């Protein structure tokens, strides 16, 4: 087992700039939205940025999965925080079920459901949707240059 991925030598430029764009995207998004969101939601969007820019050809990185999965996570998290006795477990479970059923699988969206189940915030939900749209659009615009780094 190698500690450093063997593809780094061939794709080192992609490793550097794609990782940088993942961080830069979150930094730019936070400039506009940092004052209205909780840390758990920011973490979920950070995981989305990782997905979009490091495994761009994976099913979970396509726009349907990113935006659809995050929309499901946000809606379910808000609903569960209001109507479920155990909103944390209910939010993650229901979001997972809906994502796989609706073919919009995006693992970071489980974090969104969790975060909004714990700390329900319509502003946080809007942040997730806006950030998902921005990240998906950026990924689309850079798609011819992005390589899977896995």
Automatic annotation (TrEMBL):
Keywords, in A-Z order: Membrane, Transmembrane, Transmembrane helix
Pfam families, per database record: TM_HPP
Keyword Transcription regulation: no
HPP transmembrane region domain sequence ranges: 9-141
Tagged with keyword Transmembrane helix: yes
Annotated TM spans: 20-53, 65-85, 124-146
Protein name in UniProt: HPP transmembrane region domain-containing protein
Annotated source species: candidate division MSBL1 archaeon SCGC-AAA259E17
